[in-house]
Amino acid sequence: MGALPKEAFSQAIRAELEAVESRKKSGVASADLYAEIIRGGFTTPLPPRITAPEATASTPSRGDKKAALVLHVFADLECHHCRVHAANVLRLEHEFKGSLRLVFHAHPVRGERSRRAALAGMEAFRQKGNDGFFAFTDRIFALDGEIDDAAVEATFIQAGLDASKLASAFTNQTFAATLDADIASAQELGVSGTPMSILNDFRISGAVPYVRLRKLAKIALDEAAAKPAPGQKSAKQKPMVEGQVRP
Questions:
Q1: pLDDT of 185-207, one tens digit each?
Q2: Domains of the chain
Q3: What are phi and psi of 74, to 5 degrees?
Q4: Cα–Cα dist 146/194, whole Å
Q5: What is d(CA 172, CA 247) in angstroms, rounded to the nearest whole number?
Q6: DSSP 246
Q7: CA distances, 202 to each of 52, 118, 215, 222 (Å)
Q8: 3-state secondary structure of 74
Q9: Could you tell me which residues come within 8 angstroms of residue 234 by beta carbon, excluding any fewer than 6 positions away?
Q10: In terms of Cα–Cα distance, which of 48, 16, 20, 46 is closest to 35?
Q11: What is the pLDDT of residues 113-128, one digit of tens each?
């Protein structure tokens, strides 16, 4: 908007508030106002591009390995914003089922409790692979409050895992070394706070609103569809801006 005289700025604020009231009178619920306001698309630039790390057989993942969309999530299991983001990611997985693969990277930054929760996730993966890992982490993210050892053990049992192995997981030197290496790799990518995600090559910082996450997924999916198959030449297309989705 730029620098404006006080009265002009006040007038712009009043206009926005009137538009909000108009939407509410038309039946838009208060909780849906933000999504309605930005429904037409975004005018801000797309997020920065970054090369995602390779997902190995030891990296927890869910979804088709050949999916057009790959979402890498770096998260702390005790982080409130990560819980919000996890709920949005579950919603995105449902909407883009068959087209989206989720790859999870534990990035405990909140202290010893979050580190122990991450080690428990590694034990869940050891016991039952991807199914066991996400049975545990999905439930952890649905909890409120601190994630102490009692909460981890109860969630382990609810996920159908052997909680008697947790004590050894917390002192497992192989787990610890692997986790430290993963944290170092994430830091090399510039991950500091959580959550941080990479959707194909879009870097997404924080727990962004679902409407924005969905919009970026549509743009990334459109870009993936526009890529030529091996041996084929790419058709020239105009660069995309955020908010634009080709039919």
A1: 999 999 988 999 999 999 999 99
A2: 61-224 (3.40.30.10)
A3: -105, 115
A4: 16
A5: 51
A6: -
A7: 9, 25, 12, 13
A8: strand
A9: 226, 227, 228
A10: 20
A11: 999 999 999 999 999 9
